[in-house]
Amino acid sequence: MPRYTLQVNGAARHIDADADTPLLYVLRDALALRGPKFGCGLGQCGACTVHLDGQAVRSCLLPVQAIGTQAITTLEGLGSAAQPGRVQQAFIDEQALQCGYCANGMIMVSAALLADTPRPSREQVQQALAGNLCRCGTYQRICQAVLRAAES
Ligand code: FES
Ligand code: FES
User: Phi/psi zone of residue 58: left (φ > 0), alpha (ψ -120 to 50 degrees), beta?
Assistant: First the structure.
């Protein structure tokens, strides 16, 4: 089994995995980073989103061999329960979630959006999040949280 060195949340992590193992499995199972969630496993829901060199990508479809030296950031890299990042704090303040299963993807996509577009319009937020599914239907509050984060 090949060994890979991944740059995860600012640290080099060494893992042994088959080349086609999805990054999501490596993060959750080998590195115990449980921010990214398994939703559909088909690239259709966004629950597994991480950043790769700052871009939001779906880790369930990304084989570990394709990553190389690109910087991986997970939800844990944005903040912690004790010190939430600004997007995480805005989701808390707006009580944007119900079950919370979609939270990882919503927050990771929103953080990438705000890095590129610090003051997005409501339409830009809705467009950025259009591919992320929330089975609880809290889209309006999530959108409001992103706009709040942009102002903070
Ligand atoms: S679990 Fe990756 S997009 Fe649904
Ligand atoms: S809050 Fe339940 S899936 Fe979005």
Answer: beta
